[in-house]
UniProtKB/TrEMBL annotation:
Residues 31-150 form the Cyclic nucleotide-binding domain. Keywords: DNA-binding, Transcription, Transcription regulation. GO terms for molecular function: DNA binding; DNA-binding transcription factor activity. Residues 164-232 form the HTH crp-type domain. InterPro entries: cNMP-bd_dom, cNMP-bd_dom_sf, Env_Response_Regulators, HTH_CRP, RmlC-like_jellyroll, WH-like_DNA-bd_sf, WH_DNA-bd_sf. One of its GO terms (cellular component) is cytosol. CDD domains: CAP_ED (cd00038). This is Transcriptional regulator.
Length: 249
């Protein structure tokens, strides 16, 4: 069964409560779909479903993993630090996990993570993940696919950062948001602009200038509200490439 533990800014509070509903939610996550009953039971035996407030530090770069974290609700920022600087590596939504490579190798985290919004996470013990990987072919296949997707996403990110100007990166990110919102040309940036700038490898002041410059390419911005007034002009400027921009490629 899955224990449910509420965690606040000062640490855990209350006692773990076993809830069938929480277990049902956990078992509906992609990681558990198609697993053997024995494998599922082993993963869930020590699992915790926990809530964290916005800005809570979830894992720390350099620490060794005790759990595989799966996002059930909310949004998580994965970032890295060097001396007094830090940059966003990725932003994760419900159904995504972090950080499987560190768990699988039982090695130190190369990245940190914090909650961008209030989040609910499923914490699966790292030793159980490694054990079930060896025993359950369905789970091993899911883990291998997750690692492969992570590698391909990294290659796309490197290509995006090294081959495009900062303005082209922003334009293609805007097109991605339009596609993600089923073609809607009005959307809200889902996190603060500082996080967006770091994710795109752009200084915040450059991001502001790029938003202003994209006005002539069919983009109108007011705070975090974005309107794509001319999709064809934006696409003509951004020139998206499937090998970089298509999540399914």
């Amino acid at each position: 069964m899955c224990a449910y533990l509420v965690r606040g800014p000062g640490g855990p509070r209350g006692e773990p409560i076993v809830r069938a509903e929480e277990e049902r939610i956990s078992l509906a996550l992609p990681y558990f779909d198609g697993l053997s009953e024995a494998g599922t039971g082993q993963l869930m035996a020590g699992a915790l479903l926990q809530r964290f407030p916005a800005q809570a530090e979830l894992i720390r770069q350099g620490d060794r993993p005790a759990f595989l974290h799966v996002v059930v609700e909310g949004r998580v920022e994965v970032f890295t630090r060097y001396r007094d600087r830090e940059t966003t590596v990725d932003v994760l939504d419900a159904g995504e996990s972090f950080i499987l490579a560190a768990v699988f190798l039982d090695s130190a985290y190369l990245k940190s993570a914090r909650a961008l919004t209030p989040v609910r996470l499923l914490l699966v013990p790292a030793d159980a993940v490694r054990a079930v990987f060896r025993q359950d072919p369905a789970f091993a296949e899911k883990c291998a696919a997750d690692l492969a997707r992570g590698y391909r996403r990294l290659v796309k990110e490197v290509s995006n950062l090294k081959l495009r100007s900062s303005m082209e990166r922003l334009a293609n990110w805007l097109l991605h948001q339009v596609r993600r919102d089923a073609g809607s040309r009005h959307f809200t940036i889902p996190f603060d602009k500082k996080t967006l700038a770091a994710k795109l490898g752009i200084a915040p002041e450059v991001l502001s200038r790029n938003f202003a410059a994209l006005a002539e390419h069919g983009v109108k911005v007011s705070g975090k509200l974005v309107e794509v007034t001319d999709l064809a002009r934006l696409e003509a400027f951004a020139r998206p490439e499937a090998v970089i921009d298509d999540p399914g490629y």
